[in-house]
Amino acid sequence: MSLSKKQKVWVYTAVAVVAVLVVVIIINLVISYVIETKIKSSLTTKERNNYTIELRKVNANILTGNINLKDLSITPDSAFIQQLKNGESDQSTAVYAMIPTFRLAGIGIYKALTSKNIDIRKILFKKATLKIYLGKKPDKHPEKAENKMNPDSIFIKGLEGIEIGSIELTKCKLEVIDLVDDIQIVQSEDLELEIEGIQLTELEGQNNYFTIDVDHVIIELLNERINLPDGNYYMTFNRLYLNLSDSLVEIDGFTFKPTYEDKYELARKLKYTSEIFDVTLKKLSVLGIDFQKIKNEGLFYTDSILVQGLDLNILMDKRLPFNTDKRPKLPNESLKRLNIPVYIKGISITGSRLNYQERMPNTTELMTAILGDLDVQVSFATSVEDSIATGKSMVVKLKSNFMDLTPLRADFDFPLISRVDTFYYTGHLSRAQMNEFNQAAYPAMGIKFIQGQLDNINFSGSASPRFSKGEMTMLYHDLEAEVSKKDLLNTNKFLSWVANAVLYTSNPGKNTDIRVVQMEFERVPYKGFGNVVWKTLQSGIVNTVLPTGKTINEEEDQESKKEKRKKRKERK
Fold first, then answer.
1. Does residue 355 contact residue 370 with C-beta atoms inside 8 Å?
2. Among 372, 379, 472, 387, which residue's Cα sits nearest to residue 425?
């Protein structure tokens, strides 16, 4: 039977399509075999540069541009790990990877064959286990032998460039391990990460060697939880975003919390009195980061750090002993002595809150100090020697509502070039009812305000690492107070009567001038900046309301007494 002209066209078309499909399938099989052979031959099971690399299976499909590597493992040699731990290697890190699914998706095969440039739409790591080992930094850095690979470069033969659309990690596990101290620094059980904008460009004058160009990298990490060393704390965040082109880092929904619901359970694990932190943060933005300075000079330079919605809770259980060997630095001391050079033009903290609490040995009531509606502005925070040499100071301006009620303002001037590390401060506390401060005053000072009106407090002074002094003007009237027994559990009516008999009930008093009193405090060397500020202000309040200038129960700070006794013994 003869076919019509139209039928012949359909038959010829069908044969042509089948032929093309057969040719494509054959080409796909051949090229897939070549790709699989090349990959397997390059990833042999014998040791390569301190690592053993194994691969079970490779699937390649030129129609989709996908290459799938199954059960890829990269294992550092045990001898290499030991060298890292001892600082005997010219490297300080090693990586272990077990990757069930490693996919190169959307590869431009035609472009790769014709121009020797590869475009990869996505690199996918699925359910991978990744470990980063941190060793001891080598003391010496030997000269790199000629023709040996630079640690900042990658050897790929026969290509001119590689561009990667994105790298995606899905349901992966990440560990960072400190080999020297034998501790786990970071543990992440369900890592979700996407990186965009990576390019590999050939090094000028060095054929087949490529450097990783990350100038346009974008990294987004979502819903992550990281367990910290010792198991005492964990941190989470909803989103971490880094954009190198825009010089931007953002963190949304950050928390830093104890792993114990009962914070006193954590306190009991500690040997000494120490801060227990509970932190939440709505948003952190770091703007204007100079990534080139970080990469080339190791200098962290940024225009501004914006902190929004910080809720900082600090608890100290003072029933534990203090670590008297500890020597915390003041802010200006700490900044100048940072291990890495830092230059931050400005830090802004807005819409935030500080809740500081202390559990005293002889009371069940917590000493509580609250800074609500906290606004802090910091300018010129630097540890760079050339910047310090200009003579400028780091300036901190703080505004808040003390105990969530009374407007408080405090300004600090931290000269960075000063050899004695003295800083200066001024402040103002507005009108309030005196009993609003009982949560702070009663557990700490043993005094409870029954009534009285504070008109305002103005103070100014200076502090060095050893001593703080200044002046305070505290205006108030109609003061009445109770004084506790030594155990702070019951009110002693007789002492309260005596106290009210000798207290200055007003400033200025009837037919008297305004009293301006001295503030002074000899620093307890193992306590920090907050203790210096609070104890100095406390001395001003006591000197204002008492003619003797001492606390009501005439007790000195016990830790200060111990330190003085220790000094006397050392002199003998």
1. yes
2. 472
Integer angstrom CA distances of residue 287 from 210, 253, 263, 303, 307: 30, 18, 35, 6, 11
**How does DSSP classify residue 416?**
S
Going from the C-alpha of 459 to that of each of 17, 268, 518, 540, the distances in angstroms are 91, 38, 10, 9
Q: Is the predicted pLDDT of residue 397 greater than 90, yes or no? A: yes
Q: For tokens 């002046």, what's the residue?
A: 471
Q: CA 195 to CA 220: how far, in whole Å? A: 7
pLDDT at 548: 64
Q: Is 344 exposed, middle or buried (0-12, 13-18, 19+ CB in 10 A)?
A: buried
> Does 508 sit behind a cis peptide bond, omega within 30 degrees of 0 on the bond before it?
yes
**What's the mean pLDDT when you consider all of the chain?**
80
Query: Distance (Å, rounded) from C-alpha 129 to C-alpha 187?
Result: 11
Residues of the chain above pLDDT 70, percent: 75
Are 330 and 288 in contact, with CB atoms under 8 Å apart?
A: no
The pairing of beta strand 51-61 with beta strand 47-48: antiparallel
**Tens-digit pLDDT profile for residues 181-214:** 888 877 787 888 888 877 776 666 666 566 666 6
pLDDT tens figures, 244-288: 888 899 999 999 999 988 888 888 888 888 899 999 999 999 999
Checking DSSP bridges between strand 117-126 and strand 432-433, what pairing results, if any? unpaired
**Residue 132 β-bridge partners:** 95, 176
Q: Which residues contact 305 (CB under 8 A, 6 or more apart)?
A: 284, 285, 286, 287, 344, 346, 347, 348
How many helices (H) and strands (E) in the chain? 11, 24
Taking alpha carbons only, the member of 443, 417, 422, 238 closest to residue 361 is 443
Q: Are 281 and 254 in contact (CB under 8 A)?
A: yes
| 392 vs 303: CA distance, rounded Å | 17
In angstroms, what is the C-alpha Rg of the chain?
Answer: 33
- Sort strands 93-107 and 117-126 into parallel, antiparallel or unpaired: antiparallel
- Cβ partners under 8 Å of residue 498, min gap 6: 483
Domain positions in the chain:
24-138+152-220
In the structure encoding, which two tokens stand for residue 396, read together?
């901190």
Cβ–Cβ contacts within 10 Å for residue 565, how many?
Answer: 10
> Residue written as tokens 């990959």?
39
Residue 29, helix vs strand vs coil:
helix
The pair phi, psi for residue 525, each rounded to 5°, is -65, -20
Distance CA 230, CA 176 (A): 13
Measured distance CA(472)–CA(541) in Å, rounded: 8
